[in-house]
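Workshop exercise sheet. Pairs work together: one partner reads the sequence aloud, the other fills in the structure field after running the prediction. Swap roles for the next sheet.
Pair: D.N. / O.F.
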Amino acid sequence: MNESVIKTAAKNWLRPDNYFLKEAIDRTVNEGLFSFEDIKHQILVLKEGLESGQIEEWVRRCGLNEQNNAKGKKILCLHAGNLPLVGFQTALGTLLSGADYYGKLSRKDPYLLATFLDEVKKTGLNQQVYSTDLDHFKDLKADTVVFAGSKETVPKVKEKISNLKAAIPDAEFIIRTAKFSIAFIEDQSTQTMQDLTEAIFRYGGKGCRSVAVVVTKYPLDSAKCEFTDYIESFWLKNPQHPKPKPNLKYQFAYNKSIDRSQAWLDDFLIQESDEFPESDFTLNWVLGDEEKVRELRQKFGDAVQSVYTTGIKIEGIPTELLSQAQQPPLWWKPDGVDLVDELIR
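Structure field:
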């Protein structure tokens, strides 16, 4: 099994004196791809997960062993670039499974994950190839393809892969389509509001685990003054790196014309609405209870990644802790699918 080798590689990768990771972080920040604060947050979350035995826990959960693994399979992973190191879990899971990993790195995040893969290679585990160019995988004939997409992009990606013969004709596609998460809060305690702020504003709201819809019994007008204090405090330590397009102001003007309750934060808009959150940098604030959460979860379907609470159980819906929204365990299941389990089945 690869478990001990990968743990050693990960430990070496996260050493404070790892020049290659430091250089990758510097290049990423200097080229304006991500903020230092967001990269630091992501790396600290991964470090905590690795040091707390989450690799071992993932292996245990999947029953991964010498007889039950994905050795001999070729897995092509097309990594997104919306968050720093967003592809780490997919790469780690593929390597743990025993499969051969082929990673198409995003040009929006080309340096960080590459340093981890290089560290794995130093251990002598030569079962990974990566490139930022999909053409690099021409005639690969992968058994499985993993990528994040939408109904609009999936056909185009499949066509490109087919033309390149990057996957076998009947390859399995593990496609992640979730776009955002929902939070349900019943109190406005300091801890709850800090956790909510982190869940919404980390990475500028990008990422499927980021909260774009909040369901609460408090009207926005009664909460927005205090809430914006938490947001400003967060932004002082974590300046928002991505910026919205000018058309976000049009939504603000429209809301004003129909007397919709809202809060304009220059680079983010909070509005009282139970509509689908179409726009980036927008939070929809919804008045309601557990029944409203169930209604929206069903209404928004596969676009929802997770439903967060402060520990409250909602009948019929799996929930996660709000405090863990932006620091999931290594073995969390994107779109409800455990990658390692899927690859070895």
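Discussion prompt: The radius of gyration is 21 Å. What would you look at next?
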